[in-house]
Amino acid sequence: MRKKGYTLIELVMSISLLVIVLLGGTAIFFRSLRSSGISDIQSSVNNNLRTLDEMIEGVLRYGTVTRLVGLDDLDIERDDCLLAGDNGVTGKAIVIRDSWGATAQYTRGVDIENERGYVSSNSAIISNPEIDVTNLEFLWYCRSGVNDKIKLLIEAKTEESSGETISGKIDKDINMLNSGIN
Fold first, then answer.
1. What is the Cα–Cα distance from 176 to 181, expressed in whole angstroms?
2. pLDDT score of 142 more than 70
3. Cys bridge to 148: 25, 68, 132, 176, which one at CB 3.0-4.6 A?
4. Helices (H), the chain
5. Mean pLDDT throughout 7-20?
6. Which of 49-53, 87-91, 112-116, 177-181 has the lowest mean pLDDT?
7. CA atoms of 51 and 30, how far apart (whole Å)
8. In this structure, how many other beta carbons lie within 10 angstroms of the beta carbon of residue 173?
9. pTM higher than 0.85 for the full model?
10. Average pLDDT of 18-40?
11. Nearest to 134 by CA among 110, 105, 106, 159
């Protein structure tokens, strides 16, 4: 008569299968947890960019361009923009007279100590220090008889603790309601 029970081989096989399933489940869990963390950081970068965009867009939409600081650091005035025609002119900083008559200047600076880019308005930093603003560009389109248009480009990144870089970008056209009709 044979005793009921499991053989050693059956026990080893079942424990091996259990270990494989648990290791696979643990790997999936940690991958999901890491993905969730990256998703949170990406969401934070995008939210910071949207906030920055809203601050700048509000002034641009209702303001009047005074001048643009070109990529070569030369000032670009309205006549230069009109001469450029449909191509527009590109700059790294913009000076706007807002709807209340005050002047606002938006530019990108670099914090040498922290090696991070930021956006400032009239020398006050307006971007969140959590993100590194890598690019700020304005493309100004103007023609006689129609409202001016600005193409705003903001690019930023942040580095996760694991060293992975998360980046975001705002690239939009803004119709200026008070600028350009001659």
1. 10
2. yes
3. 176
4. 8-62, 78-84
5. 89
6. 177-181
7. 32
8. 10
9. no
10. 79
11. 110
CA distance 25 to 175: 52
3-state secondary structure of 4: coil
> Is the distance from CB of 96 to CB of 63 less than 8 angstroms?
yes
Tokens in use for 156?
């930023």
Q: What single-letter amino acid sits at 68?
A: L
Bridge-based pairing state of the strands 132-141 and 89-97: antiparallel
Burial class (CB in 10 A: 0-12, 13-18, 19+), 76: buried
For residue 38, pLDDT beyond 80: no
| Residue whose C-alpha is closest to residue 138's, from 47, 63, 70 | 70
Tell which residue, 115, 122, 118, 123, has the closest CA to residue 154.
Answer: 118
Locate tokens 């990529």: which residue?
Answer: 71
CA distances to 28, 89, 142, 144, 181 from 86, rounded to whole Å, are 52, 9, 8, 11, 16
Length of the chain: 182
Torsion of CA 56, 58, 63, 66, to 10 degrees: 0
Cα 5 to the chain's mean position, in Å? 64
pLDDT in tens, 61-73: 888 888 898 888 8
* Res 4: pLDDT: 79
Take residue 15 and report the two structure tokens written for it. Answer: 């424990």
